[in-house]
Amino acid sequence: MAIKEGNLEAPKRDPIAWQDPDYLNKESLYNEMERAFDICHGCRRCVSLCDSFPSLFDLVDESETLEVDGVDKDDYMSVVDQCFMCDLCAETKCPYLPPHEWALDFPHLMLRAKAYKFEQGDTKWRDRIITSTDPVFNTISNPVIAPIVNAVNGNETARKAIDKAVGLHPEAPIPSFKSSKAVSKITPSTPSNTAKACDNTTGKVAIFVTCYGDNTDHQSVADLVAVLEHNNIEVKLLQDAKCCGMPKLELGDLKKVASLKDANLPVFQQAINDGYDIIAPIPSCVLMYKQELPLMFPEEANVQKVKAAFFDPFEYLIIRHKAGLLNTEFSRGLGKVAYHAACHQRVQNFGSKTREVLSLIPDTDVTTIERCSGHDGTYALKSETYDKAMKILKPVVRRVAQVEPDTFGSDCPMAGRFIAHGMEGEGEAEHPISMVRKAYGI
User: Fold this and answer.
1) 8 Å CB contact between 356 and 314
2) What is the largest CA-CA distance in the chain?
3) How far apart are CA 176 and CA 140, in angstroms?
4) Which residue of 89, 186, 298, 315 lies most exposed, with the fewest beta carbons within 10 A?
5) Within this chain, do residues 363 and 414 fall inside the same structural domain, yes or no?
C-alpha cells in the first residue's frame, strides 16, 4: 500500500492513553520515541519552533550513522526536556497527525515521556514546587507576605541568591503578587435580566478566574467583566475553583491533573446547570478543558459537557457579534496595535478571533505576530532555559519594535509580560480584552 507524504484530512488527536499499563513502560516508550524521531528526522518542518527539534537533529547529525538508529536512547530525554507543550508542532506544522497512517502526535509523545520521568522521580523539587500553583499562590497572596515577596523579586542581590539556591534565573520577569484574591475583590454588577442566548451561548458567563488571574492579574479579570457587562452579558466569578492543571500536565504529573479536574468539575457543572457558559482569560486554561482533559478522559460525559460550554473570551465575543449581539459602538481607536497570538490559543483551531474583534474598532491597525514568545509556562523562569527562552523571544520583540505600536500585548499575560521584558522598558503589555475596554471608554 502506498504511503501518503502528507495529509489532506483535518487532524484528529487520539485520546491520551495515560491509564494504560503500557503507557509508562520504558521499552515501549523508547520504541515509540525512536519511531517518531525517525519521522521527524526525515521531515524537519518544525526546526524553527522550539529547541526540542534542533536538539534531536543535532543528536542525529552527530551520530555515526547520521540516522536515528545511531542515537543513544539515553539521550532521548534531552529532547523531551526542551518541550514546553505549546502544541504548535502538531497543530500548525505536522502533516502526520491522525488520521494519517503514521499517527504521529509529537506533543503527546513528549507528555508520555514527561509522565515517565515524573513516575521515575526524575524531576527537580524546584519544578514540583513552582508548578504547585494553588498552595504557592495561596501562601504568597496575603497582606503580610505579598509585599515581602514582591520586594525580594525586585532586589538584584536577592534574585541572585535565589538563582543559586533553587535555579530561578535572576533576570526572569516574575509577576507582582496581589495581597487579596480577584474573586473577593471584583464584584460584577447586579444581573440585568437582559441576557440573550444565541447559537451555543446563553448570554450568561461564569468566569474561571484561574490561579494566575486570581493572584497576580486582577486587571485583565476586571476588564473582562466590564466588557461582558457592557454587552448585556450577565457575569459571575466562579468561587472555589482550583488550578486548571496545565502546570502539572507540563511536568508530567498526570495523577495531580486528574485530581484538579475532579475538584473543578462540580464547580463548572453547577454553573452550567444554572445556565452559564464558562470563560477563562488565560488560553492555557481554556485549552485544558477544550482539548487536554477531554483527550485524557474521553469516556467521562461531564468532561465533555464542560468542554462544550467552555470558551475563549474572543471566541465568545465573535459568536455574539455574528448574531448581532455585540456592541460595536467604540468611543476611541487604539492606533497601531502589535498583537501577539498566544500559542495555546492558536492551537484551539477556532481562528484569529482576537484580531477579528480588535479589527472592529475604528482607527485601529492590528499587526498579528504568530510566533512563540518563549515564556512557555515555567520555561523562561528556569536558570537552565532562560537564555533559550530569550532566543525564542527575540524575533517577536523585533517584530513589535518594527510596528512602532501605540499598544502591544498578548492573550497570554505571561507572554505579554515576557515580551515587555524583552522590550527593555519600552512600554507595558496589555491583554487584548483590556484594549477593548479602553476602546469602549468604560
Assistant:
1) yes
2) 71
3) 10
4) 298
5) yes
Kindly report, residue by residue over 61-108, the tens digit of the pLDDT: 998 899 988 899 989 999 999 898 888 888 888 889 888 999 999 999
Is 229 exposed, middle or buried, given 0-12, 13-18 or 19+ CB atoms closer than 10 A?
middle
Domain that holds residue 98: 26-119
Average pLDDT over residues 263-280: 96
What is the spatial distance between Cα 19 and Cα 264, in angstroms, rounded to a whole number? 20
User: What pTM value is reported for the model?
Assistant: 0.92
Cα(429)–Cα(146) distance, rounded to whole angstroms?
Answer: 22
Q: Are 138 and 146 in contact (CB under 8 A)?
A: no
Q: Is 3 a member of any domain?
A: no
DSSP state, 382?
B
333 and 310 part of one domain:
no
Strands in 80-159 per DSSP E: none
Do 154 and 68 fall within a single domain? no
CA dist 339 and 432 (Å) reads 8
pLDDT tens-digit profile of 334-371? 999 999 999 999 898 888 999 999 999 999 999 999 99
